[in-house]
Design a protein that fits this description.
There is one protein chain. The chain has six helices and 35 strands. The model has no long low-confidence stretch (mean pLDDT 95). It has three domains: 91 residues, MurE/MurF, N-terminal domain (Udp-n-acetylmuramoylalanyl-d-glutamate--2,6- Diaminopimelate Ligase, Chain: A, domain 1, 3-Layer(aba) Sandwich); 179 residues, Hexapeptide repeat proteins (UDP N-Acetylglucosamine Acyltransferase, domain 1, 3 Solenoid); 33 residues. The strands form six sheets. It has a nine-stranded parallel sheet with strand order 8-11-14-17-22-25-28-31-34, with no helix packed on it. A nine-stranded parallel sheet has the order 10-13-16-21-24-27-30-33-35, with no helix packed on it. By secondary structure, it is α/β, with parallel strands linked by helices. The longest helix is centred in the C-terminal third of the chain and has 21 residues.
Length: 329
């Protein structure tokens, strides 16, 4: 497939410098792009790669237009990474449409499920009684959508996702565990994307809720009664324990975890590998990671950490004694 270079600017805007009739045959990273391909420059640290790239056209910000124009065709835009994202969307629209029926013959769909005629259900999917799937939503292969769970419009659910398994609820009983039936469901809004093998548990009484525009990576665990606000994004292997509330426009880095019954305000960003152990009421970037070190040093530091509470009390006592001495003088 090829697209005329000028067609990108006609569809997406931007300022083109170069031959609009040039044919683009594909998209590629800056360092590996070949003639006939388009790439982008988003960060100054990759500026050296711009000079040596063989890409036929590069998307850049006005900051780097002089360097980009010196090497060849370019598209100038204020947000190169966003422009690149829209280029990928435009490219995909021109690819041949997926062949085959909208609902794969191997899918198992309960007669009481409600599926919009434009939705696509992949191979070996299971859609249980009372589940609902909105317009233009796609379930890739092996997705399970539990009973009474709802997925909105224009969602993409990747292979192996399980929506609506029982939440982890058990009451102790004489040294054993008594199951707490999970009577809620899962409600997923519009324009949500859920990565492969992610699990979203149904609520115990109320529903687990994923609001519009949320993006979840692969291998994420969302426990029962969690509520995730609009346009929040979570990277792979992160997890949220039961009844936690995460606000809108938040991010959680890879392997980040949020303990149960906590609340994160809108605009909270959690660094990769962090453990959130308290509610956060103010937007910002938060990190809770014990730095990696060689084991001998790590053990010494860990031993010191155990003494912090007693050291704090000793420091307070010394400060109080010093204050008393100063006041008496």
């Amino acid at each position: 497939m090829t697209l005329r270079l000028g067609s990108f600017v006609e569809a997406l805007g931007g300022e083109l410098h170069g031959d609009a009739s040039l044919l683009i045959e594909g998209l590629a990273p800056l360092e590996s792009a070949q003639p006939g391909q388009m790439s982008f420059l988003n960060q100054p640290r990759f500026l050296k790669q711009l000079a040596t790239s063989q890409a036929s056209c590069v998307i850049v910000s006005p900051q780097f237009q002089q360097q980009a124009r010196a090497r060849g065709a370019c598209i100038i835009t204020d947000q190169p990474y966003l422009y690149y994202a829209r280029v990928t969307q435009l490219w995909k629209k021109h690819l041949p449409a997926a062949a085959g029926p909208l609902i794969h013959p191997s899918a198992v769909i309960d007669p009481q499920a409600r599926i919009h005629p434009s939705a696509r259900i992949g191979a070996l999917c299971v859609v249980e009684a009372g589940a609902r799937i909105g317009a233009d939503t796609e379930l890739k292969s092996r997705v399970t959508l539990g009973e009474r769970c709802v997925v909105g419009e224009r969602c993409i659910i990747h292979p192996g996702v399980v929506i609506g398994a029982d939440g982890f609820g058990f009451a102790p009983n004489a040294g054993a565990w008594e199951k707490i039936e999970q009577l809620g469901a899962v409600r997923i809004g519009n324009d949500v994307e859920i990565g492969a093998n992610t699990c979203i548990d149904r609520g115990a009484l109320q529903d687990t809720v994923i609001e519009d525009g949320v993006k979840l990576d692969n291998l994420i665990q969302i426990a029962h009664n969690v509520h995730i606000g609009q346009h929040t994004a979570m990277a792979g292997c992160s997890g949220v324990a039961g009844s936690a509330i995460i606000g809108a426009h938040c991010t959680v880095g890879g392997s980040g975890n949020v303990l149960g019954h906590l609340t994160l305000a809108d605009g909270v960003h959690i660094s990769a590998g962090s453990m959130v152990m308290r509610s956060i009421g103010k937007p910002g970037l938060y990190t809770g990671i014990f730095p990696i070190d060689d084991n001998a040093h790590w053990e010494k530091n860990a031993a010191s950490l155990k003494q912090l509470a007693s050291l704090r009390e000793r420091l307070r006592a010394l400060e109080a004694k010093l204050a008393t001495t100063q006041n008496s003088n």
